[in-house]
């Protein structure tokens, strides 16, 4: 397997794991909000750190897999940047500190955008991996 295929597999795997992790996070925060206890909030926070790592690893893998076609790394870069912004908007203060709630609400508001970007990356990368020869690979 060459550098490009390894990078593309990494891009696909990390983007897919990010999307799956986000679904689980929504479930966990929903459980917390509907009374399941603070353990669910802790699980949401801890999984969030791992999902954020998947955003960054998606971009790094795309750099490896798509080099020297830097323009094709635009969506993975957007995922890493928006995912980082979204993570920092959580504020780390949770429900103990209610100030700036309107700003921290964007943490939840960016979820659909980041999720769609992760799915888009996974889908495009999967299609590229399924092409048997470089000539058959779709332009990204």
Report on the architecture of this protein.
- It is elongated, with a radius of gyration of 17 Å.
- With 140 residues, it is mainly α.
- The chain is built from six helices and no strands.
- The chain is 74% helix and 0% strand.
- Quote the average pLDDT: 86
Low-confidence stretches: none
Report the β-strand fraction as a percent range: under 5%
Radius of gyration: 17 Å
Number of strands: 0
Largest sheet, strands/sense/barrel: none
| Overall shape | elongated
Gap from first CA to last CA: 21 Å
Number of H- or I-type helical stretches: 6
Key descriptive features of the protein:
140 residues, mainly alpha, 6 helices, elongated
What layout of secondary structure does this protein have?
Layout: H1 3-33, H2 38-66, H3 74-89, H4 101-104, H5 106-109, H6 111-130
Question: What's this, in brief?
Answer:
The protein is mainly alpha-helical and 140 residues long.
């Amino acid at each position: 397997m060459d550098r490009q295929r390894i990078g593309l597999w990494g891009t696909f795997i990390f983007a897919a794991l990010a999307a799956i992790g986000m679904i689980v996070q929504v479930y966990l925060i929903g459980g917390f909000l509907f009374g399941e206890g603070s353990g669910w909030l802790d699980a949401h926070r801890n999984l969030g750190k791992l999902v954020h790592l998947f955003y960054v690893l998606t971009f790094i893998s795309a750099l490896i897999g798509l080099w020297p076609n830097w323009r094709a790394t635009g969506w993975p870069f957007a995922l890493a940047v928006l995912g980082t912004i979204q993570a920092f908007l959580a504020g780390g203060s949770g429900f103990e500190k209610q100030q700036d709630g309107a700003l921290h609400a964007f943490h939840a508001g960016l979820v659909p955008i980041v999720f769609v970007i992760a799915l888009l990356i996974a889908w495009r990368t999967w299609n590229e991996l399924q092409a048997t020869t470089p000539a058959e690979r779709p332009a990204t």
